[in-house]
Design goal:
alpha/beta, Aminopeptidase, Alpha-Beta Plaits, 4-stranded antiparallel β-sheet, 32% helix, elongated, binds zinc ion
Length: 389
């Protein structure tokens, strides 16, 4: 199987050209029609068959030698409202929009995997699918793919995410929860507004919201090592419009990230109680609305134990290790409703790189030489799931 990596290495230049084409023309969540036109053009150029739903869902279909199971690779296609500062020659041509989460790499790796599996179609049984999924960044794109019916009957799902803290050459994979459930919390506090001269005649929603923010922050220990299973950050607080008017309403928004479903339920209950009780102390009311952005990405034990030896054979045992659990969310979790899932981290840090920029940073610039490793790892996973002859 080492030849799989060699075959993927031979696609380095082609994958770089695809990646840079995507990088220069990023599109925001749910608006990726131009990106999908490019994907469809590249697939057609390779002769790889694909099906579509609307402008922003594209699924490549590669039939093996004879009927059998179906295994899918997911690549997400959206960019972020970030102004690029990498200074790269392939810098985004759209000011204020950037592939700062590496989804351009995911697409190029997906296309590379499509090409490899298409070339190797006489060697496996069943069907390989490459899902190009829109709107991963909070836009419920995976749900739209599931609802499209284009991935019905798929027996296993694979994906990877570029990982800035991990050196190129490494492919990390473990069973169990690997990405946190992500919830957007919206707390509305209602009081009674009034004149700044007469606070006793008002019910101060702003003070209640401020006290709620402090009380909620106590739910999360400050040191990362003390919070192995959850984290919460308050990102927004809105109240008031003028210096001598007491506002009658206030709003807090926060993100809660949990790696355990029961802990999540428990924390949501505690958060609602804290908001209600704190508001009550100020004579105000409070309500909590929860937008479940994505669930826990849970790597299936049986799937991982089948995929891992195949990946180790393709990449070398040194390259594969257990992955760190991440508090970032990924709606890849939605495919679990259809079948077992397996989500890996791909190292994209240049060896000796001095400064590491996180995902979503304007200077995030992943190492393109990791792409063949990603394509070989995903192909090996799919071939391991389908069975080769
Ligand atoms: Zn991402």
């Amino acid at each position: 199987m080492r030849e799989l990596l060699n075959k993927a290495m031979a696609l380095q230049e082609e994958m770089s050209a695809w990646r840079q084409a995507f990088h220069m023309r990023p599109e925001l969540t749910g608006q990726e029609a131009g990106t999908h036109r490019m994907i469809r053009g590249f697939l057609a150029g390779m002769g790889v068959p694909f099906v579509t739903a609307g402008d922003t869902i594209t699924v490549a279909h590669i039939d093996g030698k004879r009927p059998g199971k179906r295994a899918a690779i997911r690549a997400d296609t959206d960019a972020l409202p970030v102004t690029e500062e990498t200074g790269a020659t392939y810098t985004s041509l759209t000011t204020g929009v950037m592939h700062a989460c590496g989804h351009d790499i995911h697409m190029a790796v997906g296309l590379g995997a499509a090409k490899l599996l298409f070339i190797m179609r006489e060697t496996f049984q069943g069907k390989a699918l490459i899902i190009f999924q829109p709107a991963e960044e909070g836009g419920h794109g995976a749900q739209r793919v599931v609802e499209s019916g284009l991935v019905d009957g798929v027996d296993s799902f694979f994906a990877l995410h570029v990982w800035p803290q991990l050196e190129t050459g490494y492919y990390h994979l473990s069973a169990g929860p690997v990405c946190a459930a992500t919830d957007r919390l919206m707390i509305d506090v209602s009081g009674r507004g009034g004149h700044g001269a007469y606070p006793e005649m008002s019910r101060q929603a702003l003070l209640a919201a401020a006290e709620t923010a402090l009380a909620l922050s106590a739910l999360v220990p400050r040191k990362p090592e003390d919070r192995p299973m959850h984290v919460m950050s308050i990102g927004e607080m809105h109240a008031g419009s003028y210096w001598n008017v007491i506002p009658g309403a206030a709003r807090l928004e926060a993100s809660l990230r949990t790696l355990d479903a029961r802990l999540r339920e428990d924390l949501l209950g505690q958060i609602e109680n804290i908001a209600r009780e704190t508001a009550h102390k100020h004579g105000c009311g409070a309500s909590l609305e929860v937008d479940a952005v994505c669930g826990i990405v849970y790597n299936d034990e049986a799937l991982v134990s089948r995929a891992r030896p195949a990946i180790e054979e393709a990449l070398g045992t040194y390259a594969v290790a257990n992955q760190e659990r991440a508090f970032i969310g990924d709606d890849f979790s939605d495919y679990r409703a259809l079948g077992p899932c397996c989500y890996a981290h791909l190292g994209v840090m240049r060896p000796g790189q001095e400064e590491v920029f996180a995902l979503h940073h304007p200077r995030f610039d992943p190492d393109e030489s990791a792409m063949p490793i990603g394509a070989a790892g995903l192909c090996a996973s799919v071939l391991g799931a389908l069975g080769t002859e």
